[in-house]
Amino acid sequence: MLTNLIARTPARLGGILLAVAVLLLAWTVYLGSVLGGEVQAQNWSVSWIGLDLFEVATLTATGVLAIRRSRAVSPVAAAAAALLLLDAWFDVMTVDSPTDWYIACAMALGVELPACYVMIRLSKTALDWPGPRPGE
């Protein structure tokens, strides 16, 4: 049902997404004004572990699909790129000390962002791969 709605009314869906983006922007400005510089978070370590496990899952799926030369790797690689970017951002923005900041920046610039770029390129390139042959 949702797929049919999206196929029939992409302009309406686009309008809804733009409205949601405006509301999210307003919410973000509000949060930025009331939260201040520090916030206590429950389950902090579980959140980090969860993010890393999502990265493991998307990188594993990307690897398997790339080995199979499947075009299905495109959205999975895009998701992996987004997670790597988020990981780099939060690593750099949540450190406690100047030393940790330099380490986080080195990891972001040396590992996470280059891997993110590779995932983006793979995502785009995979769209041009031939589809499966009939019967496969």
Write the layout of secondary structure elements.
Layout: H1 2-8, H2 10-35, H3 44-67, H4 73-93, H5 98-126
Helix pairs in contact: 3-4, 4-5
Compact overview of the structure:
Helices cover 79% and strands 0% of the residues. It has helices spanning 2-8, 10-35, 44-67, 73-93, 98-126.
How would you sum up the global shape?
flat
Contiguous runs where pLDDT drops below 50 for at least 5 residues:
none
Number of strands: 0
The helix-strand sequence is HHHHH
Radius of gyration: 19 Å
Secondary-structure-derived class: mainly alpha
Number of DSSP helical runs: 5
* Quaternary structure state of the chains depicted: single chain
Share of helix, binned? over 70%
Strand content: under 5%
Query: What about the largest sheet?
Result: none
| C-alpha end-to-end distance | 28 Å
The chain-level mean pLDDT equals 88
Polypeptide structure, described:
- By secondary structure, the chain is mainly alpha-helical.
- The model has no long low-confidence stretch (mean pLDDT 88).
- The longest helix is centred in the last third of the chain and has 29 residues, at 98-126.
- It has helices at residues 2-8, 10-35, 44-67, 73-93, 98-126.
Summary keywords:
136 residues, mainly alpha, 5 helices
